[in-house]
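About this split. The held-out portion is used to measure sequence recovery: a designer receives only the structure tokens and must propose an amino acid at every position. Recovery is the fraction of positions where the proposal matches the reference. Here is one held-out target exactly as it appears in the evaluation file.
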């Protein structure tokens, strides 16, 4: 017995020691948030005050000190994320993760993101370059003080267990600048639609492919800028088949801020003071991006103690770790928000190439060729030959077997505005310091990529909107489908002048709404920005809600928050009556009187979305493959809305059966499938079904969260959380019908700015400010976010104060 007791004591001590070692290892990289620390290179001390959510507000006397401190703080909270981001943009992920990321590296090296950033660096305003360099100084000061992997991030310790050790290189201005390419890639607009059209053309004739891409419903849903026209709409796109494998390769590029399976977008709107309780404008923004842990955003305040020429910043908002400044937010004079404009800025060019040349206008032109060397952890280096034409790099070279396209084409090149040097970084800093509408518009002049809708409000009561981005003009065609490059017929001849891009100041209705809907009718504008807009369901819902709230009385911050969290989808008005005609299942009563809202505890929402999912699968998956299959969303609302009026349309027929099915057959089958699935998953009583039991958000670590190793995933992932909303509701928690109901994209943050009283402004992230697993601010905002609540954007109390000294 004594021996047993002693053994148990020894075992208990060993377990305790092991637990203490784990706790110590986990806590090692947590940031110092109180006291003093040295930051060499400062001209004077800088103060970092963190509020109850851990959000840092930085106070300095010069711009250089301010951005050096931001670099230090970003590294404190998110250095692993920053390091992975620069490996991503340089096509060097395989140095960390081995052969598993070779495809990603090949595609990114082929496009040459970092090479383009190298060309951009000398084009920047000297002040921008100074800000980037100051930021790098702060990051490198933190790196010098944390020279052990255990002090930097738990991820480095876990990576070391696999035999991969890495010594982070010093941070540079180029590392920050290259991140803008990743942002542009995830917001690359209609390239996935081009590839999906090609996949559809593999199995369908052109007229049926066109059915899957209905025009924007200008008669029912709004444009951002008013304007009507009587010009012709787009003709049918001539779509080449056989590019599905290329789409798979491009999809391998890791989604940095986007979402697998679609669903990215955003809402923003601004209301004039004539309609608000404060008498000044209110501005709301909630970008819909891929969910990751940590969130893509890092909340921060950057405050010059005296705002002037030497230090012109007093800005609070959402930043990207690795990039100085604020991307979305407000300063002491103006506020702004972004949604994706979605212009067509990418073209796939079908090419006829041999080993050294490509064809142009009947002649052979030498290919531009370079060799890239990719280092691979645990393996031998890989050499990649990159070939380029005047239409861009040949992205099909990443495929083992190449491509065989129409008319003798054997390669595909990518032309993209982000692969041409630009000055978007200049634009961000100018936006941070803009004081009025003219300065705001001028700041956006160099916002080349990605094209964005930018809403505006200022303390003088003005509201407005500006479309940004370098949008190409084509010699012919509209860019909706890959086109032969050898003819030169579809070459780019220039870009739309910035002064000709749509904008509006103080519109008569007293508000501006953007939700990835059409900016303006192309027939009125004269030039098509794109034809692949979101179809306007969210925009129309926001306008309807604002009209109702304005009619009730003055709008306040709380009203704006309720609109952001609205979960009704108008397509329910079309789907529910169609289902009701054929539904005699036990769940039929759920949809009677349902208002279309998608609360997490809603039984009708669970049933309606299950029917919708199975209707999509039943109706389209028999004839479509790959990317052409429906993921859901408002384009598919429009497709099915039209089909519901044509019960004999061929799409209703299941080509895998000998019978010829009609609309009602497919509706009955979808009802049966939905009932069977929900009964199995949620029980036999329809009243007990809950949307949030299907529609769950798993906060997945961006790099190690899908390792397949359960203990590692336990360390870094959080959730799942039941959430409300759905794809193309205002509360746009997206999901992919091909996969299931799990959340793929979210309102990544929510922000409401009161121009009368910045102290009344509100915000929330969908995770937290920290990138360190088990830190108190790793996912502490998720519960607040999921309930549709927000936090003070300016908390007057500081929970922690850190002084940075030179």
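Reference sequence for scoring:
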């Amino acid at each position: 017995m004594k021996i047993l007791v002693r053994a148990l004591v020894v075992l208990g001590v060993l377990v305790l020691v092991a637990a203490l070692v784990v706790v110590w290892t986990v806590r090692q990289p947590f940031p110092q948030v109180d006291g003093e620390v040295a930051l060499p290179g400062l001209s004077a001390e800088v103060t970092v005050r963190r509020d109850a959510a851990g959000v840092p507000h930085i106070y300095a006397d010069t711009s250089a000190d301010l951005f050096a401190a931001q670099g230090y703080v970003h590294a404190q909270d998110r250095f692993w994320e920053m390091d992975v981001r620069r490996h991503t943009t340089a096509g060097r992920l395989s140095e960390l993760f081995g052969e598993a990321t070779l495809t990603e590296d090949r595609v990114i090296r082929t496009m040459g993101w970092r090479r383009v950033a190298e060309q951009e660096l000398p084009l920047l305003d000297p002040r921008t370059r100074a800000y980037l360099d100051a930021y790098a100084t702060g990051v490198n000061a933190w790196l010098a003080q944390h020279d052990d992997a255990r002090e930097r991030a738990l991820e480095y310790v876990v990576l070391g267990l696999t035999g991969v050790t890495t010594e982070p290189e010093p941070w540079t201005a180029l590392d920050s600048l290259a991140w803008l390419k990743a942002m542009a890639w995830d917001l690359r607009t209609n390239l996935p639609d081009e590839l999906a059209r090609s996949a559809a053309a593999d199995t369908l004739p052109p007229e049926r492919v066109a059915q899957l891409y209905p025009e924007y419903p200008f008669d029912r849903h709004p444009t951002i800028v008013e304007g009507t026209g009587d010009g012709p709409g787009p003709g049918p796109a001539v779509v080449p088949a056989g590019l599905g494998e290329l789409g798979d390769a491009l999809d391998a590029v890791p989604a940095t801020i986007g979402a697998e399976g679609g669903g990215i977008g955003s809402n923003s709107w601004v209301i004039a003071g004539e309609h608000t309780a404060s008498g000044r404008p209110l501005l709301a923004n909630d970008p819909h991006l891929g969910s990751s842990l940590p969130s893509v955003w890092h909340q921060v305040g950057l405050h010059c103690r005296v705002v002037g020429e030497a230090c012109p910043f007093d800005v609070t908002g959402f930043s990207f770790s690795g990039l100085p400044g604020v991307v979305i937010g407000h300063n002491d004079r103006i506020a702004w928000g972004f949604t994706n404009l979605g212009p067509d800025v990418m073209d796939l060019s079908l090419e006829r190439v041999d080993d050294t040349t490509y064809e142009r206008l009947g002649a052979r032109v030498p290919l531009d060729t370079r060799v890239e060397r990719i280092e691979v952890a645990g393996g031998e280096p890989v050499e990649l030959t990159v070939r380029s034409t005047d239409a861009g790099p040949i992205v099909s070279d990443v495929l083992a077997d190449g491509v065989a396209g129409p008319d003798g084409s054997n390669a595909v090149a990518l032309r993209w505005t982000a692969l041409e040097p630009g000055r978007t970084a200049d634009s961000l800093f100018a936006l941070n310091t803009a004081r009025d509408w003219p300065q705001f518009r001028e700041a956006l002049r160099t916002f080349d990529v990605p094209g964005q809708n930018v809403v505006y409000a200022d303390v003088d009561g003005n509201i407005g909107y500006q479309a940004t981005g370098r949008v190409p003009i084509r010699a012919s065609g509209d860019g909706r489908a890959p086109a032969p490059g050898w003819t030169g017929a579809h070459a780019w001849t220039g870009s739309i002048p910035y002064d000709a891009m749509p904008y509006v100041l103080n519109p008569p209705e007293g508000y501006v709404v953007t939700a990835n809907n059409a900016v303006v009718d192309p027939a009125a504008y004269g030039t098509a920005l794109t034809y692949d807009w979101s179809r306007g369901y969210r925009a129309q819902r926001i306008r309807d809600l604002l009209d109702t709230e304005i009619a009730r009385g003055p709008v306040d911050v709380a009203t704006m928050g309720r609109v952001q969290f609205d979960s009704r989808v108008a397509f329910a008005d079309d789907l529910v009556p169609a289902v009701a005609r054929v539904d005699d299942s036990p769940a039929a009563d759920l949809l009677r009187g349902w208002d279309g809202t998608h609360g997490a505890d809603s039984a009708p929402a669970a049933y309606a979305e299950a029917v919708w999912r199975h209707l999509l699968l039943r109706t389209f998956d028999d004839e479509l493959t790959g990317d052409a299959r429906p993921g859901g969303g408002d384009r598919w609302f429009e497709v099915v809305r039209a089909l519901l009026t044509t019960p004999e349309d061929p799409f209703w027929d299941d080509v895998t059966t000998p019978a010829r099915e009609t609309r009602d057959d497919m509706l009955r089958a979808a009802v049966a499938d939905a009932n069977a699935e929900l009964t199995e998953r949620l029980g036999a009583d329809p009243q007990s079904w809950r949307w949030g039991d299907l529609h769950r958000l798993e906060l997945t670590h961006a790099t190690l969260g899908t390792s397949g190793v359960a203990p590692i995933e336990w360390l870094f992932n959080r959730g799942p959380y039941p959430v409300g909303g759905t794809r193309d509701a205002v509360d746009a928690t997206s999901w992919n019908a091909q996969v299931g109901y799990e959340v793929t994209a979210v309102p990544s943050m929510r922000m409401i700015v009161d121009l009368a009283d910045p102290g009344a402004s509100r915000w929330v992230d969908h995770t937290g400010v920290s990138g360190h697993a088990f830190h108190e601010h790793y996912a502490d905002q998720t519960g607040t976010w999921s309930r549709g609540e927000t936090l003070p954007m300016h908390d007057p109390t500081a929970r922690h104060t850190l002084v940075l000294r030179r």
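Annotator remark: Confidence is low (pLDDT under 50) at residues 228-232.
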